């Protein structure tokens, strides 16, 4: 499975969004998340954005006050993971651009107060750990339709 998890974290290390694409127990998930977040946040801007940690290839990127972290499990047979680090870095950039197009300029508060829409947007791009859509307009179209229907329903009940 290419992507095992995706995290959005602020500079203080607080998780604002987490999405897991493989089963990990809550105890293990909590420990793994805190260790990876601590490891990514402690690295300087001069260090590369790729880390191998506890059987995962971790790719992260900072945008303003948010860190976007993607983890992909390394293969058990010792061969390298088929997922490309630069491809994951480009996916993170594409995700941020898509969120910027949706919210104006994405920030931590957008994620916190519109978490359902952010999950919906992410689910349009990633399914079962596989990147299925990268076209911004195709990702945003269902969200726009949903918002228009919601506004239409609200105006009917006024």
TrEMBL record:
CC annotations in GO: cytoplasm; endomembrane system
Biological process (GO), any one: intracellular protein transport
Keywords (A to Z) from UniProt: Membrane, Protein transport, Transport
Gene3D superfamilies registered for this protein in UniProt: 3.30.450.60
One Pfam family named in its UniProt record: Clat_adaptor_s
Compartment list: Endomembrane system
Transmembrane segments: none
Domain AP complex mu/sigma subunit: 3-148
Main location group: membrane
Assigned protein family: Belongs to the adaptor complexes small subunit family.
Listed PANTHER family: ADAPTOR COMPLEXES SMALL SUBUNIT FAMILY
Protein name in UniProt: AP complex subunit sigma
């Amino acid at each position: 499975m290419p992507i095992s998890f995706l995290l959005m974290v602020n500079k203080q290390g607080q998780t604002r969004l987490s999405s897991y694409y493989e089963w990990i127990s809550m105890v293990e998930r909590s420990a793994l998340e805190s260790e990876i977040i601590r490891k990514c946040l402690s690295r300087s801007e001069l260090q590369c954005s790729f880390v191998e940690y506890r059987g995962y290839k971790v790719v992260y990127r900072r945008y303003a006050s948010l860190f976007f972290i993607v983890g992909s499990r390394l293969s058990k047979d010792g061969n390298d993971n088929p997922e490309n680090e630069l491809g994951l870095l480009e996916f993170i950039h594409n995700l941020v651009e898509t969120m910027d197009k949706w919210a104006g300029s994405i920030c931590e508060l957008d994620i916190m107060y519109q978490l359902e829409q952010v999950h919906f947007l992410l689910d349009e791009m990633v399914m079962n750990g596989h990147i299925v859509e990268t076209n911004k307009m195709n990702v945003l179209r269902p969200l726009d339709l949903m918002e228009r229907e919601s506004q239409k329903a609200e105006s009917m009940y006024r």
